[in-house]
Each structure stands twice: as structure tokens, then as C-alpha cells.
Specification:
The protein has eleven helices and 14 strands. By secondary structure, it is an alpha+beta fold. A hairpin with a 6-residue loop joins strand 13 (216-225) and strand 14.
């Protein structure tokens, strides 16, 4: 029997610092820059370090910064602190009432042990193209709030995600919160993903939010994940706005969406399979949203 090489499962040596304030964390980031990594829930960082995909010289633990936790409603916004855990999102009545898409999507994030520790800020900063929460931010037209020593920046979700594990966040900035606009118009949502089993990385998925004017879609944001190097909005969804949606229109729009895609290929799925799944999800999403409008299943 020939034994192959086993990938290392221990992180290389690194320094550790526990931040006791946001300013303290920012000072450490300013000092160490690209050589540092932030630790919040650790559900993405620690496995990557153990596999030696990244090797920071110092890990800055921000897990005790209470000011980065919590869910607040005010000024027409739903604000979620970066250290709010997935399980807290899942159990929040405010999220369920004002952003039910997020409540539904969080149920698909990995497994309970991961959801008990993982944070929304960690997920967004990690920017895995197969992750559910970045796509939800795009569908909900979120603003990502980041802070550095020079002050705060507010970045639209569409500008924040820039590629595989790449964001607009600089090495000296900290993601502090997410702001979701509270929609007062009648609205509905849809979430679905294809994975080999529940909790595995998605092969393709969609998170969508729509507002209605009578029985037609007046606004629609279909955000797809695991079909590109970042979550992407379906341009073809605009074909469904302010018109009577028919099965033929949905089919044509789904085909147009397939033409937009240039999916990645990996051992889990071919590019053709991901394109096919994307078109299936587009059709299911459009059918569900228009059915919700016709039967009054709105909030």
C-alpha cells in the first residue's frame, strides 16, 4: 500500500492578542497590517490556519467586544453588530419580522455547532463565494459598516464583495456592523440552495427579495451564490419587473440568466452543472415570488 502525503493539520506558530476595545483592536491592526488576522467566531479562520492556507504572525481576538454585538431597529434601518452569532440571528424576532430572508438562510449555514460560534461579521469578511450570508446582504441591499483609525466607511454590499475571499475591507479596518433598510411596502422573499447534504457547501444557491405593487413585482433582487467568484445579482431578473409574469417569460429570463454566468469548476461540480442549477433556481425563485404575490403571501 502506498501512502500519500497528509496535509498539515496544525497552524504554524503565531502571536496572540486579546483586544479589550475597538480602538485597541484598530491600533493592533494598524501596527501589524497584513500580518494580522482577526478572530471572532473562528469557524473559518482556524480551519484555514490549520490547513496552512493562511499563516498570520498575530491573531487578534475581538470576541469580547460587546459593542460589536446586538440587533437594533431605528431610523428606518435594522442594524446588526458584526459579532452577532448565527444562532442569535436565527432566534431573533426582529430579524424574523423585518428580514425573514435572513432567518431562513441562516438555517442552511453549516451545522448547529458552527452556528453557535460563527458570526455575521466573520462570514462577510471571509467572503466565501459559496456562503449564504453574503448573498443575503446583496439581496437585501445591505450596507457594510467598517471602521479604521481614520473613521468609518459605509460600503454597499455590491461593492464590498470583490472576489474569492476578497473584500473592500483593508488590512487596517474592522467590520463593525451591517445596516439593512426596513422595507415598508408589501414584500416577499425566496431562499434555496443545492448541496450534496444539508450543511455542506452549496453547489448553487439563491437569496431573493422582492417588493410588490398590486400583483406585479416592482423591485426584485435575486442574489446567486456558489456560481461565481462572489455573490452576483441576476440581471435577467429585470425582465420580470412591472409586467404580468408568465411561464414563458420566466423560462426566457432563466435562459438569459444562464448566459450571464461563467461558473467555476471544481471536484464538487462542473461549470455546466452549476449553470444548469442556476437556471433551475431562477425559475423556482420567480415562480415562488409571483405566486406569493398572487395569493397574498406577503408581509
Amino acid at each position: 500500500m502506498v501512502l500519500g502525503k497528509v496535509a498539515p493539520m496544525k497552524a504554524p506558530a503565531f502571536a496572540y492578542a486579546r483586544a479589550t476595545s475597538i480602538n485597541g483592536a484598530l491600533e493592533l491592526l494598524s501596527e501589524h497590517g497584513e500580518r494580522a488576522r482577526l478572530l471572532s467566531g473562528g469557524q473559518s479562520l482556524l480551519p484555514a490556519m490549520n490547513l496552512r492556507l493562511i499563516s498570520p504572525e498575530i491573531v487578534i481576538d475581538i470576541g469580547d467586544l460587546a459593542e460589536l454585538r446586538g440587533i437594533v431597529v431605528g431610523d428606518g434601518l435594522l442594524r446588526i453588530g458584526a459579532l452577532t452569532r448565527h444562532v442569535e440571528l436565527q432566534g431573533s424576532t426582529q430579524i424574523e419580522s423585518l428580514a425573514p430572508l435572513l432567518t431562513e438562510a441562516v438555517r442552511h449555514v453549516a451545522h448547529p455547532a458552527i452556528r453557535n460560534r460563527g458570526t455575521i461579521g466573520g462570514s462577510l469578511a471571509h467572503a466565501d463565494p459559496a456562503a449564504e450570508l453574503p448573498a443575503c446582504m446583496l439581496a437585501l441591499d445591505a450596507t457594510i459598516v467598517v471602521r479604521g483609525q481614520r473613521g468609518e466607511r459605509r460600503i454597499a454590499a455590491g461593492d464590498f464583495f470583490q472576489g474569492i475571499f476578497a473584500t473592500a475591507l483593508s488590512a487596517e479596518e474592522l467590520l463593525v456592523s451591517v445596516e439593512l433598510p426596513i422595507v415598508r411596502a408589501p414584500s416577499t422573499h425566496f431562499f434555496h440552495e443545492f448541496a450534496r447534504r444539508h450543511g455542506d457547501y452549496a453547489l448553487a444557491g439563491v437569496a431573493a427579495h422582492a417588493t410588490m405593487d398590486g400583483q406585479v413585482l416592482s423591485e426584485l433582487r435575486m442574489a446567486f451564490f456558489a456560481v461565481a467568484d462572489r455573490p452576483v445579482l441576476a440581471k435577467a431578473a429585470s425582465r420580470l419587473l412591472n409586467v404580468a409574469v408568465t411561464p414563458a417569460l420566466i423560462s426566457d429570463a432563466a435562459e438569459a440568466f444562464g448566459d450571464e454566468l461563467d461558473p467555476p469548476e471544481d471536484p464538487q461540480a462542473s461549470a455546466d452543472l452549476r449553470r444548469h442549477l442556476g437556471k433551475v433556481l431562477f425559475r423556482r425563485c420567480a415562480e415562488a415570488l409571483t405566486t406569493a404575490g398572487s395569493v397574498g403571501a406577503l408581509r
